Amino acid sequence: MATKNDLAPLRSAHPTPLVFGAGAAIGVLGGMIGLGGAEFRLPLLIGLFGFAALSAVILNKAMSLVVVLVALPARLAAVPASEVAAHWPVAVNLLAGSLLGAWAGASWAVRMRSSTLYKVLAALMVLMAAALLVTHTTALGALALPLWAQVPCGVVAGFGIGVVAAIMGVAGGELLIPTIVLLFAVDIKTAGSLSLLVSLPTMLVAFARYSRDGSFAVLGANLRFTLTMAAGSIAGAVLGGLLLDVFPDLVLIPVLAVILLVSAVKLARHT
Predict the structure, then answer these.
(1) Residue 127, φ and ψ in degrees, nearest 5
(2) What is the DSSP string of 39-63?
(3) How many CB atoms lie within 10 A of CB 60?
(4) What is the C-alpha separation between 267 and 162, in angstroms, rounded?
(5) pLDDT tens digits for the chain (271 residues)?
(6) Coil, strand, or helix at residue 1?
(7) Complete DSSP assignment for 79-120
(8) Of 167, 211, 176, which Cα lies nearest the Cα of 194?
(9) FRET partner for 266 with CA separation of 20 to 30 A, picked from 84, 121, 125, 240?
(10) Closest to 173 (Cα-Cα) out of 153, 192, 200
(11) Whose CA is closest to 105, among 172, 36, 59, 159?
C-alpha cells in the first residue's frame, strides 16, 4: 500500500530550464523513433528529480496525456480519416480490454508497496526494451488468426497493454503498434494512428482511477513542473521528428534499448 512517504518530494524545486530541457531531451529520443518517450521520462522523474515511484507514475501519466492530445490532430492529419475509420473494429476490440486493464493497473499501482512498485517498473522497462527492439529491427507480419481467435486475443492483449500503460504512466504505443500489426494485419503507419485512438481513452480511465487516490495530490502540487516538462517533451518530439532519418535504426534502437535496461537496473535497486 502506498504511504505518505510515496508522495515525497511533494513539490519539485528544480529550475524551470532544467525541467524543460529534460523534457525536451526525452521528446527528442521519442521523436526520433516516432514515439512519445514516456518510458524514458519515468526513470528521469525518479532518478534526477527525486520523485517516489507512484508520484513519478502519476506525473508521467499526466505528461503523456498532454503529449498524446497534442500529437493526435497531427497524426490524424498525416493519415486519411477514412483510412483510420475503416479499422474502427480494431480500436473497439482493443479498447474492450485496455479500458479494464487501465483501471486494474492503476488500482494495483496505488495498492503496491513502494519497494514492490520499483521492481515492477524495472521489469516493465525490460519489456519496453524488448518491444522496442522487436518493433524496429524485425519485419512484423500478421499472424492471420481466424476471427474467433482474433477477437479474444485482441481483448486479452488490450487488457495487458492497459495494465502496463497505467502502471508506467505511458501511452502504450510501444506495445499497441506491434499488436495491431500482428493481430489485425494493419500497416504500421495506420497502426500508429489507431494506437493513439486507443491510448487516449485508456489513459483517461487510468487517470480517473489515480484521481481517486490521495497520491494524486502530487499532480496539483507540481502542476507547473508537469506542464513545463510536457512542453519540453512536445518541443523535443518535433525536433526528434526532424532528426528521424539522421541516425539509422540499427544504431539508434540498440542504444535506446540499453538506456531502458540501465534504467531498469537502477529502478530495481532503488529504495
Answers:
(1) -60, -45
(2) HHHHHHHHHTT---HHHHHHHHHHH
(3) 24
(4) 21
(5) 444 444 444 566 788 999 999 999 998 888 877 777 899 999 999 999 999 999 999 999 999 998 888 877 776 666 777 888 888 999 999 999 999 999 999 999 999 999 999 999 999 999 999 988 888 777 777 787 888 899 999 999 999 999 999 999 999 988 999 999 999 988 888 888 889 889 999 999 999 999 999 889 999 999 999 999 999 999 988 888 777 667 777 788 888 899 999 999 999 988 6
(6) coil
(7) S-HHHHHTTHHHHHHHHHHHHHHHHHHHHHHHHS-HHHHHHH
(8) 176
(9) 240
(10) 192
(11) 159
Burial of residue 210 (number of CB atoms within 10 Å: 0-12, 13-18, 19+): buried
- Residue 33 is classified by DSSP as T
Q: Cell numbers 530495481 label which residue?
A: 268
Amino acid at residue number 14: H
Residue 14 phi/psi, 5-degree rounding, is -75, 145
Q: H or E stretch including 125?
A: helix 114-137
